[in-house]
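Troubleshooting log. The previous structure file for this entry was overwritten by mistake, so regenerating from the original sequence record. Sequence copied from the archived sheet and checked twice against the printout by T.R.
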Amino acid sequence: MAVRLRDAVARHPEAVPLALAHRHRAAGGLRWSETVLALLTEGGIEGPRRVVTLRALHAYVSGAIQLEHRGPLDGPGTEAIAALPGDRYPLLTATARDAGGVTADEEFLGGLRLLPRGLDH
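Regenerated output below.
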C-alpha cells in the first residue's frame, strides 16, 4: 500500500503539499487509510496501537515522499552537507558522501522495512 501511494504521487509530484493539506477529505487518501486499517485489523492490531501504527505509516510515507521530491539524496542539500568541515562534522559528512550511492527506491523501501519491526513492541 505504501509503494502504491508513493507511485501515485510520483506521477503527480506537484500534489505533494496538497496531499498533506487535504488528507482528511481526499477520497483516495481515505480509501488508502481504510485499506491499511483493514490490513492492520486483520493482523490483530487494534485500538490505540492501530491508531499509532496508522499514523506512523502515514508519517513515514508522507515524509519520505516529501524528501524524495523536495530534498533528494542526490540533490544540492546532500552535496552541501558532504562539503562541510569534516573535522567538525565527521559522521554527517561521511554519511552525506555515502548518500550519493543510495537510490530513491533503496531509501524508501529500506526505511519502510524498518517499520514492521516496531510492531512487535
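DSSP finds seven helices and no strands in the chain. Archived copy saved in two places this time.
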